[in-house]
Amino acid sequence: MLRFLIGRLGLLVAGLLLASVLVFLVLRVLPGDVAQVIGGTNATPAQIAAIRESLGLDAGPVSQYLSWLAGLVRFDLGDSLITGTPVGEELGQKFQVTLPLTLLALVVGLVIALPLGVLSAVRAERGGGAINVAAQALAAVPALWAGLLLILLLGRGVGLVPLLPTQGFPRDGWADPSAALAALVLPALTIGVIEGAVLLRFVRSATLEALAQDYVRTAAAKGLTRTRALLTHGLPNVGLSIISVTALTVAGLITGAVLVESLFNLPGVGRMLVSDVGNRDLVKVQSEILFLTAIVLVIGAVVDVVHRVLDPRLREAGA
Predict the structure, then answer these.
(1) Taking the chain, what is the end-to-end CA distance rounded to the nearest angstrom?
(2) Is 53 in the same domain as 112?
(3) Domain check: are 116 and 257 in the same one?
(4) Shared-domain flag, residues 151 and 51
(5) Tell me, what's the pLDDT at 17?
(6) How many CB atoms lie within 10 A of CB 107?
(7) Distance CA 100, CA 307 (A)
(8) Where are the alpha helices (DSSP H) in the chain?
(9) pLDDT exceeds 90 at position 255
(10) Same domain, 218 and 313
C-alpha cells in the first residue's frame, strides 16, 4: 500500500508539472499585452517598455516559467500584475463562494441521480424509460439557458414564483448564512440539475448491469425481492464505479461554475477568471487555472486510493 501511495503521489506531481507547462504555453499564445492594459491607450512605447521591465515581462519565457514554478513550490501563486494583490489570498476569498456552490450543486445532482437512476433501471419496463428520456433531454440543456429559465420561474422580482434572489452575493459573505445560502440556490440548481441528469444515466446503466449479474438473480431466487436483492448484493458491487463518475462530475461542476457565476453575478473563482482573462493578467490567470486543475487531479488521486482501500481485488493485485 505504501508503494502504491508513493507511486500515486508521483503521478500527481508529474500531472501538475505537465499541467503547469501547458497552461503557461497556452496563455502566452493569447493576443494582448498586460503592459498595454496597465499603461492605457495613451502610453508611449517607452512607458510600455518600462512597465514590462518592472513586471519582469521582458525576461524570456523559460525564465518566467522557472520563476513562477519556484513560487509554486513554496505555495506562492504570485501577485496580480494589475493590482499587485497576492493571487492565493484572492483565491481564498473567492473560493468561499465557489466551493459552497459546487458542493450544493453536487448534492442536487446526487439527489436527482441516485434514486431516479435506480428507479429507472428497476422499472425499466414500467415508466423507467420515460425517466431516461427526460434525463437525456436535461443533459443536453445549456447551462445558460437553464439558468435563465430558473430565473424566470423562481427569481425574485421577475419570476412566476418570486422566491429566490437572482443577482449578487451578500457583501458580508457568510456572516448571514441564510442570505448567503439563498443566493446560491438558483446557481446550484442550474448546474446540479444538468450534471445530475448526466450522472443519472450512468447510475441507470450500472444498475441494469448489476441486475443482470448471477449473484443478484441467485439472491432473488432464494426469496429476496428483486429490489432487495439489488440493494443488498448489486449496488455495493457497482458503488466504486459510481464513486468514480461522481468524482469526475465535480470537474463538470467547477467548469459550469465559470459561466453560472457570471450569469448570477457571484463573486467566485469563475467570474474572477473571466475578468482576469479579459485583462490579460497572465500570472493570475495561469495560477487560477492550475489551482482548478490541481483540485481535479487531487480528486482523481483520492478516488484511486479509496478504490484501493475498498476493493480487495486491487490490493491483492498490487501485492
Answers:
(1) 8
(2) no
(3) yes
(4) no
(5) 93
(6) 13
(7) 26
(8) 2-29, 34-39, 45-55, 61-73, 87-122, 129-139, 143-154, 177-211, 214-221, 226-229, 235-263, 269-279, 282-310, 312-318
(9) no
(10) yes
Residue 178 CA to residue 252 CA, distance in Å, equals: 26
Instruction: Indicate whether 39 and 116 sit together in one domain.
Output: no
- Grid coordinates representing 305 are 486510493
Answer whether residue 227 is part of any domain: yes
Whether 172 is in a domain gets the answer yes
Closest-CA residue to 312 (of 237, 220, 205, 230): 237
Residue 180: alpha-carbon gap to chain centroid: 20
The one-letter amino acid code at 96 reads Q
Report how far residue 34's alpha carbon sits from residue 179's, in angstroms, rounded to the nearest whole number.
37
Same domain membership, residue 262 and residue 301: yes
pTM exceeds cut of 0.90: no
How would you label 192-213 residue by residue, b for 16+ Cβ within 10 Å and e otherwise?
A: bbbbbbbbbbbbbbbbbebbeb
Residue 82, domain member (yes or no): no
The Cβ of residue 8 has, within 10 Å, a number of other Cβ atoms equal to: 16
Does the pLDDT at position 319 exceed 70?
no
pLDDT on residue 34: 67
Taking the CB of residue 220, how many other CB atoms lie within 10 A of it? 17
DSSP assignment string, 201-253: HHHHHHHHHHHTSHHHHHHHHTT--HHHHIIIIIHHHHHHHHHHHHHHHHHHH
Q: How far apart are CA 37 and CA 290, in angstroms?
A: 23
At 196-249, the pLDDT tens digits run 888 888 888 887 877 777 766 777 677 666 667 766 766 666 777 777 788 777
Which residues form the domain of 61? 2-73
Q: How many domains does the chain have?
A: 2
Amino acid at site 154: L
Question: Same domain for 51 and 182?
Answer: no
What pLDDT is recorded for position 115? 87
- Do 145 and 182 belong together in one domain? yes
Give per-residue pLDDT as tens, 88-123. Answer: 889 888 888 988 998 999 999 999 988 888 888 777
Phi, psi of 77 (to 5 degrees): -85, 5
